[in-house]
Amino acid sequence: MKPYSFLIILTILVSCVPSDKKGTMDTIVKYDSIQIYYDRSIGEDISITEKSKSLDRAIYLAKNLKNDSVLGNLLYQKSSLLFQAGEYDSLLLHHRNFINTAARINWPRIQASQYYLMGYYHDRVESDYKKAFENYSAAKNQFELAKDSSWVGKTLLNMATIQKDQNDFFGSKETVTEAIVFLSATEHTDELVQCYNLLATNHRKLFNLKDAIAYYEKAIANSVNAKDKIAFENNLGATLVDDGKYEKAIAIFERLLKDSSLDSSTARYARILDNLSYTKWLVGQEIADDSFQKALAIRIKKADMRGQMASYTHLGEFYMKKKPPMAMAYFDSVIQVSKRMNVPRAETDALRFMIQLQPNNVKLYERYVHLNDSLYKEELSVETQFAKYKYDDKLKQESILRLEKEKAEQALLTARERNKKTMSYLGSIVLLLGLSFVIYYFGQRTKRLKERNKLAKLEATLETEAEMSRRLHDDFGAGLNQTMLMLQSDADKSAVLDKLDALYNQSRNFSRAINEVGTGGRFKDEFLEMLHFRTPKNANLFVTGVKDIQWNEMAPLSQQVLFKVLQELMINMGKHSHAKMVTLGFKRAGKTLTVKYSDNGVGASLEELNAKNGLRNTEKRIQAIGGSIIFDTGKGEGFTVRVTIPF
Questions:
Q1: Alpha helices in 146-288 (DSSP H)
Q2: Rounded distance between C-alpha atoms, residue 13 and residue 7, angstroms
Q3: Where are the transmembrane segments (predicted)?
């Protein structure tokens, strides 16, 4: 943020001071002193300490000025100076003082700049995503009040990036889409391109590979920065690998490595080289480990920890069949780096490969299950927190709009009262010139009108308050209160999420039933009870293979996921399919359980299937534990699903 020009402000203010000569001169002298101290604070020939002292003096002189914007600008400049100097403890203390003073500063731009700076500090320095998101959100609201679409879009982009880094890909996609709306009205091409790249990444993480490829191509087409374009093309190549289009990916990686603008000693070069080697290995080309090792060496030299995890993972896969012990060593390196960086998701990926190498290692499997369960709960908590931040911001904005409306209504009432008083005084003068009877008559009439008007105002006020109270209670208060009670009583987490999503414009209606599922010996009875309970009265349920399964041998996490997935399928059937017959077949083969679900209902088109959040969530649950789910349906053709899940 560039500091605001004090010279223009001071010129305007001095021209508006009272006509009193002594007061005018005192004000001019004070503004001149503030300008001198401010200019000194932004000079390049003095130390940070001297700059800070000059700003403190300017702030002291500005405290008693009628125009708060001067003080606000000085306070923000102080925050910026402390941030540049790395005096973060002082910055936090000064920020609290700024907030206390901001109550009487009616300039959203200054407050927006302050909140943005603090969001940047918590994001880039402290890595505290909660405080960063909270401050960015406050900055976004103030930029909106200042009608600055450009900075609203930039702030939303930062918020969406935080959500993506915390694995809230749905929330990030929603936020970055909102950012594009604001940035499209400006000429900030760089930010728009970053939005396209982020949107593509979110789609890739959500396995929407077609959309991911489209947005990466859009980012590449609109990028004017050579380094960014190389990064986007590398991302596109990696997504093509995910989509099984290996030859196209190899062509992209080979072209990028030949690009003269790409420095062969950089982490970006190592990333492309590693991707190329891995892709060639996937298609069966003979690859020596030298290409993997070269990329790893660059990443170690550049302290690229995330890149090192990728290299170790690829080397582990490379040696899984040739030299299993060496593969285990590389996967263990992934785990060590992931713990140092606090990236548990990378550890679960490594454990998944290690379990394949040592399928009888119970400790590995238990660690994998524990991490997956913890990550699921953490991601659920993160999504809830982000939703709550947005919901609270919405309430705050509505409160501000309501207060502004009340002020406008009060101003209108005051103007009407003033007019009535004026008319009353004029009437009194006329009445004094008339007969006593006329004076008395009009006096009584005026009194009755006043009483009647007061009563009407009171009734109108009460009706307005009642309507506002009803809306707050019905639309927000009741739902929020219910959500709080549900949280306090450890209620169904899915219901809590659904409640928050409904309060937030029902923008994400996740139908998750995540109540506790009895595992072990209780699982079979609860599972069958759920299936029969979810079967409509006018439908017949046929279940085969249940007695052949040793349910108590099934992993608790797999039991829970299976319960949730079939519960969602049964709920979807009861709501939409109008099926008369539902069949479920269970078959175990080694460490895998296969479940085939089918009904003779109305089925669904591909578009309708993609629109169902619940079914998408079942796919996410299954994939999270290494299973798979395949939908086979068409409009009017019934509904068939095949689920495979680790036993």
A1: 149-165, 169-184, 189-205, 209-222, 226-242, 246-257, 267-282
A2: 10
A3: 423-442
51-66: per-residue pLDDT in tens? 888 888 888 888 777 6
Residue 383, classed as helix, strand or coil, is helix
In the numeric block, the tokens 């000194």 are attached to: 40
Q: Is 578 helix (H, G, I), strand (E, B) or coil?
A: coil
HSE toward the beta carbon, residue 261, CA cutoff 13 A: 8
* Pair 240, 249: CB distance under 8 Å: yes
- Name every residue whose Cβ is closer than 8 Å to that of residue 520 and which is 6 or more positions away in sequence: 552, 556
By percentage, how much of the chain surpasses pLDDT 90? 35
pLDDT tens, 345-361? 888 889 999 999 998 88
CA angle (432, 438, 441) in 5-degree steps: 115
Question: Assign residue 626 a region: left if phi > 0, alpha if psi is -120 to 50, beta otherwise?
Answer: left
Q: How many CB atoms lie within 10 A of CB 627?
A: 21
Q: What strands lie across the sheet with 628-633, from one edge to the other?
A: 540-544, 581-589, 592-599, 639-646, 628-633
Burial of 387 (0-12, 13-18, 19+ CB in 10 A): buried
Q: Would you state the pLDDT for residue 189?
A: 80
Written as one letter, the residue type at 418 is R
Q: Which two tokens stand for residue 471?
A: 């809306």
